[in-house]
Structure formats: structure tokens, C-alpha cells
User: Fold this.
Amino acid sequence: MEDFPLHKLPNSSDQLIQVENIDYTNPYDYKKLHRHDYYEIILIEQGGGKQVIDFEESQLKSWSVYVVFPGQVHLLQREPASKGWVLQFTHLALPEKNLPLHELGAITEDKNAFQELRSIFRALQDSLQDARIYAHSITQHYLHILLWKVLQLQSSNTTDETPIAPTPGILKQFLSLLDQYLAQTRAVKQYADWLTITPKKLNELCKKHWGKTSLQVVHERLLLEIKRLLMTQNLSHKEVAYRLQFDSPAAFSAFVKKKTSLTPTELQYRLEQIYK
Assistant:
């Protein structure tokens, strides 16, 4: 299995926000598995092709917006006729701490929503080309407006009678801690301690907001990381097991089998077929 590097935003120390046409000359092969250390907002005006984000495949549809988070396993296969833009930015471009990034998601085949976002996007593009004083701060504010608008449009476009409630801050912290420490511990009590709440309270919050227990959330994240390691690291199954703190390769295999009905070898083969 090939080892896939983490791609960084070029000149990120000088330019925390970049905009490119969808057909720009990419510094790496975007048609192969890769990860970023930055966010991508992909605006597709004219669809064609497909992408896979963390093993979920979707078509590139017209009048659609897609979000790729840092660390996600990504592959993009666009058709030559597709038209759109890619907005890339690092977390350093987001000084506003209360922006609920975990809530960002795709908006598909909505021309009116797309045109709203495109108008903000054009203003951001123009600001990026502005060499006058304060232009960088103005660009950052356009970025914030764009992201808040995505969140607003997601909420207004939901088909449920009850709007989706924003993720409570403490659950965002839970997800952030899982991203940082999942390879070290899967103990719900440890995460609850870090959050200064009881395991019971954390469980109640997870069930209320996501309809699943805190342990189920941990296991979902663990399975996602297993998939990532199987696909993006030059590791044996034994090495994956020990990297993720399983007691033994047998315990690792049992977990994968219970969650997917597949052995690690079968799961790895399935994932490889997705990305072919």
C-alpha cells in the first residue's frame, strides 16, 4: 500500500486564503487519494464527474457546493466540461472562534442558493486581488460571510419540519478531542473528564443531538480512522491495530468484523475498489 502525503496550502504563511478555477494546474495529483491540512469549499456551476470524501462517493452536480475538511481522505475526478471554483483556506484565516465549522455540509442542485454564494465569492475574489491596506482583513470577513451563508442556506433548505439544531459547543469540543486523542484512548470517561462533565451527561448530549450514544460516536470515529489508515498508510494490519491501541490483532479484526461484517482484508479491498 502506497503512503499518501498530507498536502499543504502553497505559501500558506503569506496567503491563508486562495481561490482557483476548478481546472487549475494542481501541484499534486488530485485524481489519487490525498489529504489536505486546509479546508476546501468547492463551487460547481456546471457539473460532471465525481468525488469521494472519507469513503462517501458523490456526483459533481451543477449549482452545488461541497466542503472538504482538513485530514479527510479525498479524491476528485471531474469531467472536462465541468466548471467551478475551489476556495482553499487554513484555520489561521478564521480568527472568529464561534464559527461552527463542524456544521458545514454540501448544498446540491440549488441554483438560487448557489447564486447567493457566488456573489459573495466574487467579492472575496476581488478582495484577494486588492493590494490596498486592510484588504486582507476584508477578505477574511468575506470568507466568514460565505461560511455563515452556507450554514444559513443549509438550515433553510432542510426538508425536516424541525430545523437542525446547531451542535452544542461541548460536543464540538468532544469531536475535536476525538480527532486529537483517539489513537491514545477510546474511554468515554476520559473524554468526559477533559470536558469537565460526567460520562452520563456526555451520553445524554450525544443521544439528544445525534441520536446515538457517546460510545457509538467514539466507535464511528475509530472505524473512520481505521479506513483512513488502511488506505493512506504503508502499514500492516498488525501495525494499524497497535497504532490504534487495540490489545491484539485479533481484537482489531473482531472490531472491524462487528462494525462492517468484513475482515480487515475484505474492508481494505472494498475501499480500494471505491477509489479506483
The domain at 169-274 is CATH 1.10.10.60 (Arc Repressor Mutant, subunit A). The chain has two domains: 6-157, 169-274. Confidence is low (pLDDT under 50) at residues 159-163. Residues 103 and 151 are 7 Å apart (CA to CA).
